[in-house]
Write a structure and sequence with these properties.
The protein is 49% helix and 16% strand. The chain has an eight-stranded parallel beta barrel, surrounded by ten helices. Strands 6-7 form a two-stranded antiparallel sheet. The chain is an alpha/beta fold and 309 residues long. Strand 6 and strand 7 form a beta hairpin. Bound molecules: glyceraldehyde-3-phosphate, 1,3-dihydroxyacetonephosphate and zinc ion. 1,3-dihydroxyacetonephosphate binds next to strand 3 and strand 10.
Length: 309
Amino acid sequence: MALVTTTNMFKKAYEGGYAIGAFNVNNMEIIQGITEAAQELNSPVILQVSKGARAYANATYLQKLVEAAVIETGLDMALHLDHGDTFETCKSCIDGGFTSVMIDASHHSFEENIKITKQVVEYAHDRGVVVEAELGQLAGVEDEVNVSDDNASYTRPEEVEEFVGKTGVDSLAIAIGTSHGAFKFTGEPKLRFDILEAITQILPGFPIVLHGASSVIPEYVDMINKFGGDMPGAQGVPEEMLRQAAKSAVCKINIDSDIRLAVTGTIRKYFHDNPSHFDPRQYLKPARTAVKEMVAHKIKNVLGSDGKA
Ligand code: G3H
Ligand code: 13P
Ligand code: ZN
């Protein structure tokens, strides 16, 4: 058991027609919920830390909590930087012991994206760390960057071969219609599987990553709305579409919003039912259980990664 790169995980996932869940972590309870589910189902798992999570929790705390989860569960896990925005952020994570980093220079020009990504790849590979990059832009909010639906641009299949060839990147996040957050579609959900298929033809065997892949589980949105919240119109990627993606070249499926909804819905209900309680352990415990149940559901019914650790 150790922190490992995603290389073998992705190879097995690609060949086996399933995907690995990459779950965003921000505190101990979230890490415990995710990794206990992975342990019980003997599933590979990626824990990812965003720039926002590093600012909130301090990267050292999160890293040590993830190392504790490896010891407790006996599972191999990848520790990944989500949406690294600069070479310096990636370097700091690589130097600190992350096994995988994402450099997200997708908002730069194609040439600049290649240049920054290549720099990160060279530094990472010299140290045994793998790199994910992004081509195309998702709509939605990530940290301070807010991309409107109008500005979201699908990945252009004709660019992927040059990008992967020139950068040496290990996996590629693509934009096919998913977006970050809890409000992904205003009308009928639609993903461009034709773009994914075209990319797969050009890069056979190459691992593809899907960001913005929460299904915005209605049970938790309903719970939030029922117990004092207000999230009308929240909508995610239908699970059937995610199952389809998991069977394809998509080897990594990113999930954050579903964790947030599970935690928040559960805590809202807890305080409705127990208005006089004030011990954080009392409401964080059911929140942790909700994360565990939600992740177990994803592993079994969406990702298909159970039994594959
Ligand atoms: O892609 C974005 C993730 O949901 C992380 O969000 O930067 O607010 O932690 P965050
Ligand atoms: P969601 O907002 O759909 O959970 O996406 C998370 C993500 O892509 C993290 O990088
Ligand atoms: Zn993302």
